[in-house]
Amino acid sequence: MERKTRVKINRKEVMLAKLRKSCSCTPKKLKNFVMDFLPVLRWLPKYQCKEYIWGDVMSGLVIGIILVPQAIAYSLLAGLKPIYSLYTSFFANIIYFFMGTSRHVSVGIFSLISLMVGQVVDRELLLAGFDLNDDAPPAWGDGSLQNDSQSNTTAFNLTIAGMNTQCGKECYAIGIATALTFVAGVYQVLMGIFRLGFVSMYLSESVLDGFATGASLTILTAQVKYLIGIKIPRSQGHGMLIITWINVFRNISQANLCDVITSAICIVVLVTAKELGDRYKHKLKFPLPTELVVIVVATLVSHYGKLNEVYASSVSGAIPTGFIPPKVPHFNLMLQVAVDAVPLAIVSFVFTVSLSEMCAKKYAYTIRANQEMFAVGFCNIIPSFFHSFATSAALAKTLVKTSTGCQTQVSGVISAMVVLLVLLFLAPLFYSLQKCVLACIIIVSLRGALRKFRDVPARYHVNKVDTLVWVVTMSASALISTEIGLLVGIVFSMLCIIVRTQQPRAALLGQIQGTSFYEDDLEYENLSSVPKVKIFRFEAPLYYANRNYFVKSLYRLTNLDPNLEAARRKKYEKKEKQDPKNGDHTTANGLGIGETTLQLVPKQIDFQALVVDCSSISFLDTTGVNTLKEILKDYKDLNISVLLACCNPSVIDSLKRGGYFGKDFGSMQEMLFYSIHHAVQFAKDQK
């Protein structure tokens, strides 16, 4: 077979042409840019109202009803007031409506993202000298970083944005959250501009599942104190999960009986409703709004039973109505959280894109991953000016959305209107809502992630290495911290790949009787060996990291080290020259000279050709080429020919550039074959 002649491409001219094309501005190009940046302009004019409107309105109302209690509950995870969670849910749905390419994902507040934001907020509050357990009622001002000292029982003079200002705990917390959100959004937009979406490829399914499960354990642990109504310090740093549980058991005697009973009732009701909903979901037109019912009933019971006054049960407190004036995130705070924003940006993007692709595949349409990066980036950047924190697509709400007839992102606007209704009129009604009820909603929402433990045996049966990656990522996320857990998972999964290529499977092949095919001699029965020919397969790329393993495996399986054999032959020849008569003289060690000579006799080699099956070698680096050249030379010294079979074009090119076939490639046809069988036939025909 002859290779096609490649047409040489002038890369400079190609780059200049692309640059001219990208820099040119025509009305058509400008229109396409705007339409691509705001996909709503493409699909909204084609919106089929009669066909789509009922499904969109229905799913929008259901998601909106679910969003309200979840937003209030997830504020506990973020360490912020409920009003900011409602802002986040409202703005995220509106912005994604304009910029998203997925018709079905639900973008908004997400438990894992809220946890990551809350950990950064708590750390910065501690560094600034605030008391994380200060439950004094805040004063609701303009929500800016210049709130008065009444927003916390202790106020601090902080140098922010070059000015010495007095800032309370609440305004500083939301300042950190908005700065973190803004920086994460900027990272995501920059990733979109430079087309760095490939970063998500390094987050395998095992890493993401392990990260989600480990973070879920952290979330559950953080909510235990609200479940039983005890006041313990909010643990920070590494080992937060263990420290929190130690503090819980130390203070278990201080549990609030009212909160314990309320939590037990709420969990039973929520879990029962969820299980019934899962069992009869094919009969239900839309999911039961259990969280909303629980919140309404619990709020009424708490208000009329005066649980806060009589039993000292912790409640949500005042939630104002309306919108706080927008505020630019502070630059100094951005510098403090710039590193923390990196994992937040990556996790937010990965979850959004993976859910978008899942929905697109299921409903037969396409998304643009790069545009999704822009969409989720601006879902963080713009809301950060309106006292909101980071967002992402959420699996549970996305599944509910698709199951209730969602057709387009018009449903997101309907959900935003439901949240707006609460923001403008209904928020103060949740004053008496117990925090333990919110904790129950959070914990029950973790059912899906915690059920991953049941899948471990099946996962182990499918792939042991992936299971190990899951366990390591989950353990690191839970026992150290979520950010470090994610990093550990990525690094460990890469190490697993490297180790698997460093010590891959190597085997000798035998011929399937009556065919021209060859397979692993240890794996299959009734294979016949080829006389005078050894067929060696190496199932990985050949590069610097596995070069030694390749050589050792080859020598071990063929039972021949050509270097040792060559040295033995030289010694034998030298001995023969020194003592040609081989008399019965005795040496110093007591052996006869004849016996000593027997130890130096060359081995009887049972093959005259070595065929290397290169079908699994995807690439060669310089070390790999040099290794094959050394093997060719060493075996040639023993009059054993080395034949390569099933090389792909890139491997052939590497061998040519490395001089494996000589300068003029004249011997290439006698060294390279397109199938193992052709190489074996050639070896048999050799004298």
UniProtKB/TrEMBL annotation:
PROSITE patterns: SLC26A, STAS. Residues 573-584 have a biased composition (Basic and acidic residues). The chain crosses the membrane at residues 52-74, 94-117, 171-190, 210-228, 333-353, 374-396, 416-446, 467-495. GO terms for molecular function: secondary active sulfate transmembrane transporter activity. Residues 571-590 are annotated as: Disordered. Residues 523-683 form the STAS domain. NCBIfam families: sulP. This is Sulfate transporter. It comes from Nipponia nippon. The lineage of its organism: Eukaryota, Metazoa, Chordata, Craniata, Vertebrata.
